[in-house]
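Page 47, continued from p. 46.
Same chain as before, 324 aa.
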Amino acid sequence: MGTDPGSGSGGALSRRQVLLGTVGAGLTGLSGCLVRGEDSGLEGEIIIDGSDTLLPNSAAVAERFMWENNRVRIPVRGSGTGAGFQRFCAGESTIQDASREITDDEREQCSANGVEWLELEVVMDGLAVFVNPQNDWVDCLTVDELNQLWESGSDVETWSDLDDSWPDEEIDLYGRDSASGTFDYFTEAINGEAGNIRSDYTGTPDTNVIVRGVSGNKDAIGFGGAGYYYENEDDLKLVAVDDGDGCVKPTEESIETNEYTPLSRPMYIYIRLRELEREEVREFTRFYLDNTQETAREVGYYAIPDETIEAQREKLEERIEEYE
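Result:
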């Protein structure tokens, strides 16, 4: 607990800790552990909520920041992108983690409440499709096959409905629920419209539930952030996706180069502009951009390009000038 979180494993959250949700419900208690860090003179509270998928990265950045600024408290919660935006637009959180861009309805809600915001791109992620390790018939699915399987009104019930050489066994489907930005992104990328999905799948706000469901059923299939797959490689089998150029798996290289399509995506943080009046918020958002490329890879996600980070810094500094 007395170890610098940026210098070794002793004080840092492991990917497994965060991804398994052992600290995911809220890191409020962490600030108490970090009282031995450095007193920079900054103090206050910065509330982060939103994407469950982006939570591990924001938690890792927050942990580093709190170590260097031990009088700043940063609870990080993962209510889901949609639920998080409800709080953000009501003025109840400082920073919103988002696995998709803000929707028109959410823009209107923020506007109605007088909440202005700044969007910053901070991480690349890939959505992984995975099956049970005992599944020895599926190695790759085309986007068309995924669409047949997941679209609203799908008549695919068994593996043999997708390919007559596969078992005539009923497929159990697991995925994120409608409060999730991952849900929105997956359904739009695969089925052409956010929210277009069959009604008989098991939807959950927690990707760990998907992992447990698929790992416990040889006829199951699910989707979630690629980091969750790589934290559970012994319990899941990764399925490549063919978008017309051959089968590609979500790896660091294929995601950061956008070769893994259509399931590579940027993820964002949104900052309430009025909060930039507070020095601790200005310094934390600068710190976030300075550290996110490193923390993203530490917790199982993927770095955005240097030129993108620089563009985000310029956007942030332009708005900070208005509030300093």
